[in-house]
Amino acid sequence: YYSPRWKEMLGYRDDELPNTVATWEALVHPEDKERVWAGIHKHINGETEYYDGAHRLKHKDGHWVWIHDRAKAIYDKNGEAVRMIGTHTDISTEKALQLKYIQQAQMIEQTHDSVISTDLDGNIVTWNLGAERLLGYSASEAIGKHISMLHPKEDIPEVIKSVEILMKTGKYISDVAHITKSGKLIYVSLSLSSLRDEQGKIINIVRYAQDITQRKKAEDELREQKNILDHQAHHDALTGLPNRVLFNDRLEQAIEKAKRSKTNMALLFIDLDHFKEINDSLGHEVGDKILKEVTKKLKETIREEDTLARLGGDEFTIVLEDLVQGHDASVLAQKLLKVLSEPIVIEDHELYVSCSIGISLYPDDGTSAQNLLKYADSAMYKAKENGRDSFQFYSAEMTELAFKRVVMETALRSAIQNREFIVYYQPQVDATNNKLIGMEALVRWQHPTMGLVAPNNFIPLAETTGLIVELDRLVMEMAMSQIAQWYKKGLNPGVLAMNLAVKQLKRKDFIEMFKSLIEEIKCKPEWLELEVTESQIMTDPDEAVIILKQISDLGVELAVDDFGTGYSSLSYLKKLPIDKLKIDQSFVKDLPDDDEDAGITKAVIALANSLNLKIIAEGVERKEQKDFLVEHGCKDIQGYYYSKPVPVDEMENILVNGFRQ
Predict the structure, then answer these.
(1) Right CATH number for 111-216 from 3.40.50.620, 3.30.450.20, 3.10.100.10, 3.40.50.150?
(2) CA-to-CA distance for 561 and 530, rounded, in angstroms?
């Protein structure tokens, strides 16, 4: 018996199919028939409690319907099976889904790309053949391990971040590095997606990875090739220096920067003297070697931030940025002339290659790249006309100034060797009782023909040429010797304050030199005070803390000079081992009438008190200035109100006979 519903399931009316076993058997799929009968016979023979199977039956329209068959045999009194009672359920939809999943699983398993799934903690759950082929681990080796085993250690933070991005946005795609079982580094295009359960909750993360190692290698090679071509387009093939194209770009950038920061800039145009004759007589190969050697010398002479370019032939240019004054460019020009005047040895030939240099200045001479180059070129030809092996500014006045500077520098070097300097001393006074508490050592140049030269006429030059280090040490030696003599005579000169240049501070041998000087002169550390400016400290505050601590450890006091004119932070001020703040004369000049200066002065005094620092004011010239300072807590005074800087004999007179206003 077959129910009308059974027949309807196969597309038939009840009267279209007879209720016989043959009806059912005729509709069973040929591929399923043997398996179905085998299952039925096993049940009839008592091997299974009931029959449970699945097979296909042919629908009236010709397609196959998947049936889930559950049945039980009915036996007569002799134990013979006489019939089977059961149900057929249409499972075509479930079977189609099952087939789809099986096919998808096979596709994933067989795909050449790596497909790995992990739980939310990153532990590997599934591992396909593509992963095995790509990464070298078998499924049994990988499953249960953490996904981090595939990533370089430095990439682990990004691995964690990738999961966070996936959870937040629903996707994650990136090119990443993987490490294979053999330790080889490969690159893959990694795509992450989430796997959810029936309730929509994320349970696993699927990682699809495609090998892009060869593609990345090709991209890197292309990029490298592009970089090489780009370098060749912007650099000179012989010397490796920027060519005219890159030089023009750098010059434009330097002009824009100088415009923004309101600073000076210089352009040096360098042409080698008599290079054509060397080239013609010894050949281009030797000429090329000379150009390379010249390039090496030029690079060693300029600063790291300067731009050196070769425009072609024997023409070079240098862009000098961040100049304090335009004529500072002459310092480099002198160095270049000197270094190129030295012989160059090429293939047993000792050759002398001097140069002519033209200098144009921004903004004095021009504000466009085109004009600056034109003017520097013009100045270079002027240098050639003046006998070569020299430099000229585009401005005749600047050239004259630079030559004066050259003369002055030569004289300054000679003056240091000949000890043409004398030390003046300006008293520092306790204004509450008019008693001398110390003095500041101030250098003067006793020139044999020019007479007494004031510091502002030679100190800036000494600083830019580096001679300040030798000058500083000479002044220290002279002043410390004098203070020691006064103490030896039984006088009480108080504390000697000396200025410490920033270049001196940066010298590695300074501490040892200063320590030796103290010992040789037999000058007690407590007699000494070193003054450093606020701006000096802030050029490298961390380094300054270290060096100043070493000075302080010697027992020497430290004062911050020109305080309030720089930009020091209070956090650094607390760290510095300083003993005193010096109020700059620019704040004292208009006291007590200028409210702003009065406010700043009072704030500096309050700051010194809060940090337990001594305080002194410089540049005090009038009684009302002194009275204001004393009234607000600054009793130590330095300035013309008490005395201008005086030579040794006058200072000794003050020490012997007492201080007179």
Answers:
(1) 3.30.450.20
(2) 9
Cα–Cα distance measured from residue 436 to residue 636, given in angstroms and rounded to the nearest whole number: 9
pLDDT band for 18, please (50, 70, 90 cuts): very high
Distance of alpha carbon 377 from alpha carbon 250, whole angstroms:
17
Choose the weakest-confidence range: 5-9, 285-289, 345-349, 372-376.
345-349
Structure tokens given for 124: 């590997």
Q: Compute φ and ψ for 394, nearest 5 degrees.
A: -65, -35
- CATH number for region 419-655: 3.20.20.450
Domains 4-97 and 111-216 share a fold: yes
**Cβ neighbours for 599, distance < 8 A, ≥ 6 positions apart:** none
Give the torsion sign (CA, 42, 45, 49, 51): positive
| 661 pLDDT higher than 60 | no
**Kind of pairing, strands 528-533 and 557-563?**
parallel
pTM of the model: 0.49
413's tokens: 């070097």
Residues contacting residue 210 through CB under 8 Å, at least 6 positions apart: 113, 114, 188, 189
Say how far apart CA 126 and CA 207 lie, in whole Å.
10
Q: Cβ neighbours of residue 258 under 8 Å, at least 6 residues apart?
A: 264, 265, 321, 362, 363
Q: Check residue 120 and report its DSSP letter.
A: T
The chain-wide mean pLDDT, for the chain, equals 88
The CATH class that applies to domain 238-411 reads alpha beta
The arrangement of secondary structure in 4-97, i.e. its CATH architecture, is 2-Layer Sandwich (3.30)
Integer Cα distance of 383 and 392 in angstroms: 5
Let me know: does 363 contact 395? Beta carbons within 8 Å: no
In angstroms, the CA 34 to CA 26 distance is 13
Q: Give me the residue spans of the domains in the chain.
A: 4-97, 111-216, 238-411, 419-655
When pLDDT is averaged across residues 167-186 and rounded to a whole number, the result is 93
Per-residue model confidence (pLDDT) at position 396: 64
Rounded to whole angstroms, how far apart are CA atoms 507 and 473?
A: 12
The contacts of residue 47 (CB under 8 Å, 6+ apart) are none
Q: Quick check: helix, strand or coil at residue 632? A: coil
- Give the pair of three-digit tokens for residue 402: 């630079």
Cβ contact 524:490 at 8 Å: no
| The dihedral formed by the CA atoms of 274, 278, 283 and 287, expressed in degrees to the nearest 10 | -70
The whole-angstrom separation of Cα 511 and Cα 476 is 13
pLDDT the model gives residue 275: 87
Q: What is the pLDDT of residue 610?
A: 87
Token pair listed for 432: 């509450």
Contact (Cβ atoms closer than 8 angstroms) between residue 214 and residue 188: no
